[in-house]
Design goal:
By secondary structure, the chain is of the alpha/beta class. It has a single domain, classed as Vaccinia Virus protein VP39 (Rossmann fold). A seven-stranded mixed sheet has the order 3-2-1-4-5-7-6, with helices on both faces. Helix 2 packs across helix 5 and helix 4 runs parallel beside helix 5. The chain starts with 16 loop residues before the first helix and ends with a strand. This is tRNA (guanine-N(7)-)-methyltransferase. Its EC number is 2.1.1.33. GO terms for molecular function: tRNA (guanine(46)-N7)-methyltransferase activity.
């Protein structure tokens, strides 16, 4: 398995240990009763180029959070298939897929400012127009801004595996969130997860298989899918493969 600090993709997690264990308060998100968030804030310096991209392109590409339904056509200036990505890290994979699928509209949720700046910088350099960014907790965005049957796809690439068994409850891919995501997917829409942590991969298959609205696209042993062509192999993934480490893709569709 790849070292977890080697992945270029996001490590969604809860905000802090206390947040995970605190009693649920009125009005908290419906997806995680112990208030697991889709992120953990990490220290990181925003470079000059990233900050310039935020200043120049942020007003155009960053969508402010508001607990009201998102108008996808107005947000992107056109109709099109709607794809949600939960945590995009430094944005390289998001930019690659957006260029490969220009007909689709991609909404990426990421709170890490250097990552937001990095994706905006890539969008500016490559002329990418079909990406928007929500710099907010994805769980709240899903619960309060996305309506039922509005999504054509969801990407969750390399979420934090929380290696220790006692911390497994903090993992992002859990039944309440999967149920919520399934309600937001259109019939035929897909949920694509990828991880470099084998035990988490099996948990993903188990959790997604337990959601009645979803069905596995793979009949292979273990329920794992071949890597879809649109998901690029990162440099760290290539290094891991050379070292004999594994990466697992899990792709389910809504019935």
């Amino acid at each position: 398995m790849l070292p977890q600090d080697a992945s270029t993709e996001p490590k969604p997690a809860d905000d802090a240990e206390a947040a995970s264990d605190a009693p649920r308060q009125p009005g908290e998100d419906v997806a995680h009763p112990r208030r697991i968030r889709s992120f953990v804030r990490r220290a990181g310096r925003t470079s000059t180029g990233q900050q310039r991209a935020i200043d120049d392109l942020g007003p155009r590409f960053i969508v402010p959070y508001a607990p009201t339904p998102l108008d996808w056509t107005a947000t992107f200036g056109r109709p099109g298939p709607a794809i949600l990505e939960i945590g995009f890290g430094m944005g390289e994979t998001t930019a690659h897929i957006a260029q490969l699928r220009p007909q689709d509209n991609f909404l990426g949720c990421e709170v890490h400012e250097p990552g937001v700046g990095a994706l905006l910088k890539l969008a500016g350099e490559r002329g990418i127009e079909n990406v928007r960014i929500m710099q907010h907790d994805a769980v709240e965005v899903i619960a309060h801004m996305l309506t039922e049957n509005c999504l054509d796809g969801v990407h969750i690439f390399f979420p934090d595996p929380w290696h220790k068994k006692k911390h497994n409850k903090r993992r992002l891919v859990q039944p309440p969130l999967v149920k919520l995501l399934a309600s937001r997917l259109k019939p035929g829409g897909y949920l694509h997860c990828a991880t470099d942590w084998e035990e988490y991969a099996y948990q993903m298959v188990e959790v997604l298989s337990g959601e009645p609205a979803l069905e596995n696209t793979s009949q292979a042993e273990g329920g794992f899918a071949e890597r879809p062509d649109y998901r690029p192999v990162t440099k760290f993934e290539k290094r891991g493969v050379r070292l004999g480490h594994g990466v697992w893709d899990v792709v389910f569709r809504k019935r």
